[in-house]
Amino acid sequence: MRMALSIVLLISLLSAIAPLPSEALNVRGHLLKSKTFCSPPILLGPGSVSNKYYHDVDFPQGHIAIKSFDAEVVDENGVPIPLHETYLHHWVAEPYYALKNSHSADSQKLPKGVLRRNDGVCKTTLGQYFGLGSETRHTATWVPDPYGIESGNPESAPEGYEEKWLLNIHAIDTRGVADKPGCTECKCDFYNVTIDEYGRTISKNYTGGLFCCYDKTQCKVKEGFNGEVRKLFLQYKVTWLDWTDGVVPVKIYIFDVTDSALLNGTPEHSCKVEYQVEECSSVNRANDDCTHVKTSRAVLPRGGDIVFGVAHQHSGGSGSSLYGQDGRLLCESLPTYGTGQEAGNEANYIVGMSTCYPKPGSIKVSDGEVLTVVSNYSSDRQHTGVMGLFYILVAEPQQAAPAPSLCFSFPAKWCLPAWISSNM
Ligand SMILES: *[C@@H]1O[C@H](CO)[C@@H](O)[C@H](O)[C@H]1NC(C)=O
Ligand SMILES: *[C@@H]1O[C@H](CO)[C@@H](O)[C@H](O)[C@H]1NC(C)=O
Ligand SMILES: *[C@@H]1O[C@H](CO)[C@@H](O)[C@H](O)[C@H]1NC(C)=O
Question: What domain of life does the native source organism fall in (predicted)?
Answer without folding.
Answer: Eukaryota
